[in-house]
Amino acid sequence: MKHNFGAGPCILPKEVFEEASQAVLDFNGTGLSILEVSHRSKEFEAVVVETERLVRELLNVPQGYCILFLQGGASQQFAMVPMNLLPEGGKAAYLDTGVWASKAAKEVKKLGQVEIVASSSDKNYTYIPKDYSIPTDAAYFHFTSNNTIYGTEVFQTPATNIPVVVDMSSDILSRKIDVSEFDLIYAGAQKNMGPAGVTLVILKDELFGKSGRNLPTIFEYEAHAKAGSMYNTPPVFSIYVSMLNLRWLKAKGGVEVIEQENIIKARMLYDEIDRNPFFKGTANTEDRSRMNVTFVMENPEFEAEFLELAKERGLIGLKGHRSVGGFRASIYNALTITSINALVDTMREFEEKHK
Ligand code: PMP
């Protein structure tokens, strides 16, 4: 058995893979593969409608927000956000909590001014800055809710009166959120929503045209919203598999239920990291992510040997990002407690062997 701790694209439920592979051969009894149906067919239109309905229901999205399925990944949103929200000559406020946050801020500079309200780069992004003020004259405030590389997560939405934009790529659908705290949420699907290729955007309708810029149509949120995410050919298969994954989440009891499981999984792993004298966590304790658990060895010379043992035990994708080193266990929704136990057992086995 393989235990996939990869950071993304990542593990999805086995049932989803099975159903998706069936649809590659025969989609809903149509005698056609999901890969060959028209995106304008009534069967696929029903998929988009259901996927949207599931997102709305699972995240409790209020009226006044639209849900879009776009392409280009979260990285395209780094650009689309200022294109659509930042007026000429305007300023946007960004919280710098890592590589993704700073890549997002970098795109703003091509269109206007960016103010970094706070940064944790002084300690290699091992913590979430807390005491900072958000300028009231900025067009919007942007932050990253979960820092996939560094294993830190923002559990408290910063308070401000200006529009709030969040990159939730790696923790969306992992915990309950209050959508009304945000004006725009975006997430590359390839963690907890589905496979790579589709990007979820949830935004307030009132933000349409907010920048006053004359944008190429493909980059206008409003154009995609008006066309129900069918302005051009959408990523048909990625949306379909996302729908299957959202159905799975709903059948499990939804976001509240998965959140409780995720809390337990994260605690099991952090408890072992804190107990086992061979390992130590890298993120500030109160900011520890429930999705990406980053840790190193007290003696870095052991790291290659531990990775080798992990591989023998079927643990995949544990090598840390090069900017942190050590290990990163990504423990997304579909990763089971059995896999957490397999990792904890392997850490204990290593301890026994070397103590
Ligand atoms: N933001 C976060 C928090 C991420 O984890 C990632 C990728 N893992 C990105 C943005 C970039 O996403 P994409 O590759 O979809 O552009």
UniProtKB/TrEMBL annotation:
Subcellular location: Cytoplasm
Pathway(s): Amino-acid biosynthesis; L-serine biosynthesis; L-serine from 3-phospho-D-glycerate: step 2/3; Cofactor biosynthesis; pyridoxine 5'-phosphate biosynthesis; pyridoxine 5'-phosphate from D-erythrose 4-phosphate: step 3/5
Positions where N6-(pyridoxal phosphate)lysine occurs in the chain: 191
Record GO terms (molecular function): O-phospho-L-serine:2-oxoglutarate aminotransferase activity; pyridoxal phosphate binding
Catalysed reaction, written as an equation: O-phospho-L-serine + 2-oxoglutarate = 3-phosphooxypyruvate + L-glutamate; 4-(phosphooxy)-L-threonine + 2-oxoglutarate = (R)-3-hydroxy-2-oxo-4-phosphooxybutanoate + L-glutamate
Cofactor note: Binds 1 pyridoxal phosphate per subunit.
Presence of the UniProt keyword Amino-acid biosynthesis in the record: yes
A GO CC annotation given for this chain: cytoplasm
Family note: Belongs to the class-V pyridoxal-phosphate-dependent aminotransferase family. SerC subfamily.
UniProt protein name: Phosphoserine aminotransferase
Gene this chain is encoded by: serC
